[in-house]
Amino acid sequence: MGRAENRHHQNRIKEKVKKYYSGWAGKDKKKTGLVASTKKLCSCLSCGNKRKHEGETLQERRIRLDEKEK
After folding, report:
1. Contact 32, 17 (CB under 8 A)
2. Cα 27 from Cα 9, distance rounded (Å)
3. Is-contact 40 47, C-beta < 8 A?
4. Digit-coded pLDDT (tens) for 11-69
5. Which of 4, 8, 36, 61 is spaced 20 to 30 Å from 55 by Cα?
6. Which pLDDT does position 53 carry in this prediction?
7. Closest CA to 15 of 2, 25, 4, 6
8. What's the pLDDT score for residue 17?
């Protein structure tokens, strides 16, 4: 992917953010860029990484058990 294509996608995502967050981040360029570049704004239970709060996934546990058996 070239620079022009990266800029195109970045601008496209920023336009989506402006429409979706019209009140909060739509008018401020800094906030628009923040939301466009970071998909998760916080790390609470509902927004954050589930592995951090709930532990390993079932698939990861199975892999770990298979490795122990070998």
Report:
1. yes
2. 20
3. yes
4. 999 998 888 887 777 788 888 888 888 876 677 777 777 787 788 889 999 999 999 88
5. 36
6. 78
7. 25
8. 87
**pLDDT (0 to 100) of residue 3:** 96
Q: Where do the structural domains in the chain lie, given as residue ranges?
A: 1-39, 43-70
User: Looking up tokens 């401020």, which residue turns up?
Assistant: 28
Q: Which tokens is 2 given? A: 């070239």
Cα separation of 62 and 49, whole Å? Answer: 20
State the DSSP string of 32-61: HHHHHH-S-S--STTTS-HHHHH-S-HHHH
Residue 32's nearest CA partner among 20, 46, 44 is 20
